[in-house]
Amino acid sequence: MKSEREQKLIEQAYAEVEKYETLVNRDRYRLRYHLMPPVGLMNDPNGLIDWHGTYHVFYQWMPFRTGHGAKFWGHYTSPDLVHWQAAPIALAPSEWYDKDGCYSGSAISCDGKLVLFYTGNVKDEQGNRQTYQCMAVSEDGIHFTKKGVVITLPDGYTAHFRDPKVWRYQGHWYMILGAQSESGDGKAVLFRSADLCHWEHLGPIAGGNMNGLGPFGYMWECLDLFPLDGQDVLIVCPQGLKPDGMRYQNVYQSGYFVGRFDYERAEFLHGTFEELDRGFEFYAPQTMLDRNGRRILIGWMGVPDQDEDRQPTVSHRWVHALTLPRELRLTGGKLRQTPVEELKQLRKQKVAYPSATVVNELRSWAGLEGDAIELRLDNIELFGSMMEIYFRHAARLVYNSDEGVLTLERKSFVNGLTEKRQCRLPRLRSLHVFLDTSSIELFVNDGEETFTARFFPHPDDQTIFFGAHGHLQMDIEKWEL
């Protein structure tokens, strides 16, 4: 059962959806096959779970404006990670412990129930923050009853203490949270429980000035810890890293450590930090283990405080989206991300050009244009210094083989100037591209690197051009989606 206050807030949110439905859906930048908010602002994916034959994706949602604020949990469900249906609003910021936002969290299955854990955000009139880790329970996976606070802030941390991710291991429940220590370091903090209601604070397992890592940001958030291919992976979004060459170019970062987590000693010995995505818009990813044993990741196609209010969709009363679901594998100590197989269901009207060549020119091929397409380039052979792809005159992918650098450029939606994100890449073998009206997701060399970005071309421009300095040969396949 929901409180009267929560029911009222949910009704107000639905009224906002109805009020702006026509304006939102008139936007030609609305995506065709990605998850978006029905109105307002969407950010972090939450509560990813494959439960009773249905995939659930919850998300941070501000229905009343295109800025941040007291967040709701929106909710989508799918039988197959491809065809999604909006479910009733799961949580609204209604109680004393979450009145300023039902912040990010996770979902688990326990005794046949779907259980959510989330951070309750509370602020006083002076803006001072309090934080509570909270629980909500559902019998049917659709209607949730809040059970209140299960963890209050332990000593040694500021109120920037959030985003519980919960899992089960050998008869105990574990929760990892993002935190800021009183000394100003980002931390990954671990708790353990036998019953989901009473939690033991085990302390930080990783963070700035720990485990051989020096200072590494003033806050860590949106954590996820899971086993993969014989090792353990800790995903973290550190805030406060300075740009370092091609790395850390966004306002806040999203990446991971690979190592070994010792449950007995509550220790995580790990290697260096690697960024998950090289593009302009990627943050707050979360993973789930699905019915097929796959580790599936979905991220937010946005970054906090990174010109969010300047995105063109704001004039149509909505902003942001989630990435496509991606399967994770660990190869040579590095994560690889590939789009889930189920996305092939979207394919229509295949066009193929085997052994297509480009020689010191810029050219296109009939049928390769589009604004919602999947594009595969395989067996790429470049005998020359550079290859490039222009996407709808608003984004450009460039590979410089002499320098071993891959660059994604786009026209800035803030000032119209060209901006770029880059990574080192000794050799380019394949590209897998998903375009969706105003988004691009690039999977390089079968997921060795990924680039995720929003871009805003003229809606009528569907052109794609290929260029090379030298001789370029590749197999091209393209589908409408």
Describe the protein's architecture and organization.
The structure is a single chain. Helices cover 5% and strands 53% of the residues. With 481 residues, it is mainly beta. It has 2 domains: 336 residues, Tachylectin-2, Chain A (5 Propeller), CATH 2.115.10; 134 residues, Sandwich (Jelly Rolls), CATH 2.60.120.560. The strands form 6 sheets. Strands 23, 24, 25, 26, 27, 28, 29, 30, 31 and 32 form a 10-stranded antiparallel sheet that branches. The protein has a 5-stranded mixed sheet with strand order 4-3-2-1-20, with no helix packed on it. Strand 29 and strand 30 form a beta hairpin. The protein is globular. The mean pLDDT is 98. One of its GO terms (cellular component) is cytoplasm. It is found in: Cytoplasm. Pathway: Glycan biosynthesis; sucrose metabolism. Keywords: Carbohydrate metabolism, Cytoplasm, Glycosidase, Hydrolase.
Overall helicity: under 10%
Helix/strand-derived category reads mainly beta
CATH topology assignment of the largest domain: Tachylectin-2, Chain A
CATH architecture of the largest domain: 5 Propeller
Largest sheet: 10 strands, antiparallel
Rg, Å, rounded: 22 Å
GO cellular component, one term: cytoplasm
Pathway: Glycan biosynthesis; sucrose metabolism
Catalytic activity: Hydrolysis of terminal non-reducing beta-D-fructofuranoside residues in beta-D-fructofuranosides
Family: Belongs to the glycosyl hydrolase 32 family.
Task: Provide a concise account of the structure shown.
With 481 residues, the chain is mostly beta strands.
